[in-house]
Amino acid sequence: MISTYVQTLLIIFFWNADCQIIPRIEECGLSCSQGIHCKSKPSGGIFNSFCHDAPASLSSGVLKSMKISTVMKCVQGSPCSLHLNIKGTLSLDENVRGLEICSFSLDTQQSQCINVRFTRKKSKMLNGKKVQVQFNCIEVNVAQHFYVTMKTVPHYCEVKLSQQYYVEDCRNSDVGKYIPACSAGKLDYNLDRARQIVTVNASNFPRDHDYYVRLCRKWFTCEDVGAFAVIKGKESFKSVSLKYSQLLPCLCIEGWLALPDARRIQLCPFENDTQVLWDNIVYNPSTQTLAWEPACPVLVTVNLCRFTKSNDHCEDIEKSFKNSSEKQVKYARVDTHPRLCMKFTTKRGSWIKCPFAHGEFPAWKMRTAAVAEQIQVFFTSQTKAQFSVLVCNRTQMASCDSLGMHHSVSVGDSVSITMSQEMCGSPICIQGWRTDVDYSVPLQICDIFCGFHGQSHSDGNPPKAITHRMKSVESLH
Question: Are 64 and 91 in contact (CB under 8 A)?
Answer without folding.
Answer: yes
